[in-house]
Amino acid sequence: MDRRRFAGAMAALAASPALRAQTPTVRFGITAVFLYDRLRMLGRWQSYLESATGMRVQFIQRGVYSPIIDGLRAGQIDFAWICGFPYVLHARELRLIAVPLWHNRPYYQSYLIAGGRSKATGLADLRGRSFAFSDPLSNSGYLYIRYLLAQQKLRPDDYFGRSFFAHSHPNVVEAVAEGLAEGGAVDGYVWDVLAEVMPAMTARTRVLQRSPDFGFPPLVAAAHVGTAARARMQQALLAMHESADGRAVLGELRLDRLDAGSPALFDSIAEMARTVG
Amino acid sequence: MTAVTPSLPAARRRPRWSYRLKVPLALGLVALAAGVAVATTTYLLLYRYVEANAVAQAQRLARTLARSLAQPVLADDVWQAFQMVRASSLASASGTVPSVQVWVIDAESTVFVALDPQNYPLGTPASRLPAPLAAAARWAGEEARGGAGYIREDEQTNSLVVAERLIGEEDAPLGAVIVQQERAISRAQAGEVAVRLALLGSIAIIIIGGLGWFGGRRMIRPLERLRAAMRAAPTSNVRPAVAEVSRLNDEVGDLGNAFLGMMDEIEAKRRLERDMLNAERMASIGRLAAGIAHEVNNPLGGMLGAISNRRLRGGIDEATERTLALLERGLQQIHSTVNALLNEARRETHELRADDLHDLYLLLHPEAQASGCVLDWRVQAPAGRVLPAVPVRQVLLNLTLNAIAAAGGGGRVQVSAEQAADEWRAHVANTGLTLEPQRFAQLLEAQPRGDDGRTGLGLWVTARILHTAGGRVELAAEPAAGFATELIAVFPLPPGEAPR
Fold first, then answer.
1. Cβ of A116 under 8 Å from any chain B Cβ?
2. pLDDT tens digits for A49-97?
3. 3-state class of A37 per DSSP?
4. pLDDT tens digits for A15-50?
5. Percentage of residues in chain B with pLDDT exceeding 90?
6. Interior CA angle at B143 toward B141 and B144, to 5°?
7. Cross-chain CB nearest to A161 (options B79, B113, B123)
8. In this structure, what DSSP letter does residue B110 have?
9. Helix (H, G, I), strand (E, B) or coil at B111
10. What distance in Å separates residue A67's CA from the closest CA in chain B?
């Protein structure tokens, strides 16, 4: 069955409520690696994935990363868009199915930011100050800074006067903008998209440093997902840029397309994770 | 408007304020004062209300936060705590409620999170906070005694500082929530409220003041009309204007009524004065007439005596006897007239007969002829009723002589009589001069005649004679056809008297 015929059959299936009720439901976990509270975009993405895979798709959103990772490992969640850090932590239990291309590259950076009025120019100036991390399982929002400090045999709790997790990248930007934290670590991709959609907030912060390139947060399948379903989902994701609906979703995500990628993209993250211990 | 009263020297120094200004101005000022009073009261009430609310609100906020913040503080979740503090303070900082500041102090007595993190960074020791807050933090650090919260007034910032302890499980002290809330409306809010009150108050005052001004002008208008009437009273007829004012059922109406009464009295007094003047003039004329009458009566007595003597001597032919009788009746009439003038005449018992009327014609005919006018004499004595001869003769004589004079040469005078149930009416009409009703009234009051200087006593005397006899003289509203003036002498007929 070629792809076009398969899509046609699936569209017919989706149109019939009775049959639709019998189709399997896949649970798709999403985390704060992107602006995941944009509900209209999620709705479009869901309908694209449903018509492209012929499966019912249910997005699962959680405030922090760990429930999604736990869900993947426990077989409660089938697919997820997670950060490179938890991926390398559990690479043996997860299957990489796609890596987004941003500016046509499968890479992103971690930004070190400070409040607009702060005189800090780098991480050294933030010593003893308050600092906002995004999530303990975030590469750009935690691991990278932790790695930088670990190279100096330091730990965040000792280095910063006060540090806390704001649970999402936009929250980190807000905490820094409000002055709750003097510095913060955020996903560079999220900051750039935020600068486009909420310029008033990012304007109150300043990027001090950009990290080297890291593998872009990947989309993964849990180990329990069958080969056929995984292939269908992978197909749908990789073909997103070929349909109008898919392109609309990619446009809102400010991504070019999704690529098959390779686990090697995340080697640098794995190296940092090993260093941190 | 300032007007100076010329008659009052004291008032010359001070400008006089018209009621036209004073009353509307007073009403406007009352509206202004009321508006200011209401605005001030509203402001004070609002201030008190907000002040009372502020305490309750601050306590409620501190208590709510203390309960909900225990978990985030225990979990060291700064972001969640910040969001809670921010959300609750945003929720409570609506409308006129004063602004609020919140600090969460942890068990180490440092700032866990503050609503204003720019000025109070995380980890700031509580002892470095402003004194009232540091005191609250110290209180939180002490061992808890009872459930009462901490509440102090900070005079310096005019605010309330409220604190509540954060209590974890098994009463483990976790820190405290400190809420600082302005005690009442902030300066900026007070300014805003004052400006709004002033603006709305001004609009209300302008409307009410305008109505007051308008109402005042309306109230004062009748008084104004009365004043204008009083000023114009001596010279022009102001009765209609005053009567309009006096219809009002209030004090101004009473004033109008009193003024009308006063005008009536003044008018009556004037009439009395005029009557007295007339009576005095008449009295002097009477005295003159009495003198003349005395002088006339003496020769008259002699002449009547001479006629009587001539009769006694006898040898009188018929023509002489008629002449003597005519003379005697004429002299008798002069005597009676003079007596009437003197008001000394005895009550005339002599009743009117056809002879008397004939004599009158004989007396008047030559007069008419001398004047060159035609005298149409159609007078008949009343049938079956008795009238005194003297007044009738005097009245007819006077009126006819006047009519002859008025008709003049080539004129016509008609004298007639008609008998009604209880009165006898003698009509004397003439061509020539017309007697106007106004002039007729003046003549009845014996006012001097303007044209020829005569006093016009004839009509006055006639009227008095008629008055004495119980009758009256009238001016016919429409004279008989072809005549200019017609006067009517009305004599009352004594009821049911049998003819003699």
1. no
2. 999 999 999 999 887 889 999 999 999 999 999 999 999 999 999 999 9
3. coil
4. 455 445 567 889 999 987 777 677 888 999 999 999
5. 7
6. 105
7. B123
8. B
9. strand
10. 17
Look at residues A212, A175, A211, A205 and name the one whose alpha carbon lies nearest to residue A191. A205
Whole-number Å distance between alpha carbons of B45 and B356: 107
3-state helix, strand, coil in chain B (%, to 5): 60, 15, 25
Taking contacts as CB-CB distances below 8 angstroms, the residues of chain A near B104 are none
| Residues with Cβ within 8 Å of residue B177, at least 6 apart in sequence | B62, B65, B66, B69, B102, B103, B104, B105, B163, B164, B166
Cβ(B443)–Cβ(B460) below 8 Å: yes
Q: DSSP class of residue B481?
A: T
Q: What tokens does B247 get?
A: 């219809």
- Angle of helix B187-232 relative to helix B19-74, nearest 10 degrees, comes to 170
Give the residue from chain A lying closest to B111, CA to CA: A162
Q: Report how far Cα B353 is from the mean position of its chain's Cα atoms.
A: 62
Strand-pair category, B111-114 with B150-154: unpaired
- Report ipTM for this prediction: 0.81
| Residues forming a β-bridge with A114 | A183, A206
Smallest Cβ–Cβ distance between B79 and the set A117, A129, A166 belongs to A166
Q: Find the CB nearest A167 among B79, B122, B123.
A: B79
In chain A, residues with a C-beta closer than 8 Å to the C-beta of B122 are: 130, 161-162, 164, 180-181
Over 80: is that where the pLDDT of A195 sits? Answer: yes
Q: What is the pLDDT of residue A113?
A: 96
d(CA A266, CA B288): 157
Number of H helices, E strands in chain B: 12, 12
**B222 to B88, B251, B252, B259, B297: CA distances (angstroms):** 66, 11, 7, 13, 66
Sign of the alpha-carbon dihedral angle for B286, B292, B295, B297: negative
Å from A252 to nearest chain B CA?
28
Q: Are A188 and A209 in contact (CB under 8 A)?
A: no
Neighbour-count burial for B163-192, b at 16+ CB within 10 Å, e otherwise: bbbbbeeeeeebbbbbbbbbbbbbeebeee
Burial B372-408 (b: 16+ CB within 10 A, else e): ebebebebebbeebbbbbbbbbbbbbbbbbbbbbbbe
Place of tokens 């809670």: B84
pTM: 0.56
Longest dimension (CA), chain A: 63
What does DSSP say about strands B412-419 and A110-115: parallel, antiparallel, or unpaired? unpaired
Reduced to 3 states (helix: H, G, I; strand: E, B; else coil), residue A260 is coil
Integer CA distances (angstroms), A28 to A41, A47, A82, A219, A233, in order: 15, 13, 11, 10, 10
Say whether residue B76 is in contact with chain A using an 8 A CB cutoff: yes
The residue type of A218 is P
- Mapping DSSP to helix (H, G, I), strand (E, B) and coil, where does residue B197 land? helix
Q: In terms of Cα–Cα distance, which of B455, B449, B450, B411 is closest to B429?
A: B411
